[in-house]
Specification:
The protein is α+β, with helices and mostly antiparallel strands. The chain has 14 helices and 12 strands. Strands 7-8-2-1-10-11 form a 6-stranded mixed beta sheet, with helices on both faces. Strand 3 and strand 4 form a beta hairpin. Helix 6 runs parallel beside helix 8, helix 7 packs parallel to helix 9 and helix 12 crosses helix 13. It is elongated, with a radius of gyration of 29 Å.
Length: 451
């Protein structure tokens, strides 16, 4: 053991002998609690185990000298890096139960049982003629644990294996159910079998930070609220935007949105166009509150599909709590919007104290329109690479279309109720007069009674 660690240490400090960071790397992993131990199976390209000079003979791997080094390589590159928690408490460092190299053509990691059986199989012969950058490095690590019924979470940290690392990880529950995850880079902590609170917390955070990271959504909000920053009007504008994007977000999450390759670039192009439209409306003159409200609702439908693209990649972490996670993501988006408005409105008020409001609105809107225009042209160029064809309207497609229309009607209904409530709050006297004239038009006798 000490000899092997010393050998590894000698090669770790020689940059001339180190391997370059791979541009891409694929990692396959299994996690399974069983009895009193949790098993972690990892398969990674051997070329991703850097800073180690693999012993060779005649240009091929010398497996007789390499095999004793593999358990310590598994400890240094996997066991010391991966973090696993049981019911919130960190598990002790694992022991390496097995480590080996495998042919690139090996398919034993298709299932957990095949992978475990492969780890116990005889190692490859040195005469196989293997090259260090054309084989897999497989490792089986075992962690002591209290109960296989505990809730486990893992932070893989596999991003260190390459510039871009794609990980396919499967969690095998005690009853045999397999839960699959696929992610790029560092996903943070992953609850392997989350409770509803864990799932909800993750998705609230995802929705909140998606708004803060989404510059296009932020610029749309800036243009939307810049001309009028009265709290009552802002509440109803945000309500219209929320009702619209919630409807399309739910529809997309339920699989009712088009799944063609052209759809994401189309939505991104329309989002950029919405920014340009709102900015130009601010520049050209005052837009009535009603038109601004309609624009907030209409463009909210488009932005909802944009939110769904971020949600699509994270729904795999919901476990069995799909509905709670979906609602939590939406709540996170709303919390992010409110946080932005809480900073944006006072900032604009402060700015317009030192500059004419009309001139300031034009200058800020022109800057936003400039950015939005560049985004729109770039995204349209990406969209032009796709051939947009109308889908065949079979029974399934028609059912999906009707479902989307139902969601849109639901969102429109919520938005209409919000608009009516806003109209009453803005001008209750005028609204009562309008309702009286409507009643008279329906019943002429009401006019005679009034007289």
């Amino acid at each position: 053991m000490r000899f092997t660690l010393a050998a590894l240490t000698l090669v770790l400090v020689d940059p001339a002998r180190a391997h370059d960071v791979p541009a891409t790397a694929s990692v396959h992993a299994f996690v399974k609690p069983s009895g009193a131990k949790l098993q972690l199976l990892v398969r990674v390209p051997l070329r991703a185990i850097r800073d180690i000079e693999f012993p060779e003979r005649g240009g091929y791997l010398d497996l007789d000298r390499l095999e004793p080094m593999l358990p310590d390589a598994a400890t240094l590159w996997i066991g010391n890096i991966v973090e696993i928690r049981e019911d919130g408490s960190a598990l002790p460092k694992p022991r390496v139960a097995a480590a080996r190299v495998s042919l690139e053509s090996d398919r034993s990691f298709a299932s957990f049982d095949e992978a475990v059986a492969h780890m116990a199989a005889p190692r490859l012969a040195t005469s196989a003629g293997l090259v260090w950058n054309q084989v897999w490095f497989d490792a089986l690590l075992e962690y002591p644990m209290r109960s296989e019924r505990s809730r486990f979470s893992i932070r893989p940290r596999f991003e260190r294996f390459g510039a871009r690392v794609v990980t396919a990880m499967r969690y095998v529950l005690p009853e045999g159910t397999v839960r699959a995850f696929e992610f790029t880079g560092d996903p943070g902590w992953i609850a392997l079998d989350p409770g509803w609170f864990e799932a909800s917390r993750r998705f609230v955070e995802a929705g909140f930070f998606h708004i803060l990271d989404g510059l296009d959504h932020l610029l749309f909000l800036v243009c939307l609220v810049m001309p009028s920053r009265r709290i009552r009007e802002l509440v109803w504008l945000v309500t219209a935007f929320t009702a619209a994007h919630s409807a399309t977000l739910l529809a997309a999450a339920a699989g009712l949105a088009p799944d063609a390759g052209w759809f994401p670039p189309l939505v991104e192009t329309l989002i950029a166009a919405s920014i340009v439209w709102m900015a130009l409306a601010n520049i050209l003159g005052e837009v009535s509150w009603r038109r601004r409200w309609i624009a907030a609702f209409g463009f909210g439908l488009i932005h909802g599909f944009g939110f769904s693209f971020a949600l699509r990649e994270t729904l795999q972490f919901a476990g069995t709590h799909f509905a709670a996670s979906l609602l939590s993501f939406n709540l996170g988006v709303e919390a992010g919007q409110l946080a932005v408005l809480a900073v944006l409105v006072p900032a604009l008020d402060l700015l317009f104290r030192f500059a004419p409001e009309r001139a300031g609105t034009i200058v800020l809107s022109a800057l936003v329109a400039h950015s939005g225009w560049h985004w729109m042209t770039e995204r349209f160029d990406a969209l032009r690479r796709y051939s947009i064809e109308a889908p065949e309207m079979d029974a399934a497609s028609l059912a999906r279309l009707l479902s989307v229309l139902a969601w849109l009607c639901f969102g429109a209904g919520l938005a209409w109720l919000a608009w009516r409530r806003a109209a009453v709050s803005r001008n209750p006297v005028r609204t009562e007069v309008e309702e009286h004239h409507a009643a008279v038009s329906r019943d002429p006798a009401a006019e005679r009674e009034t007289r």
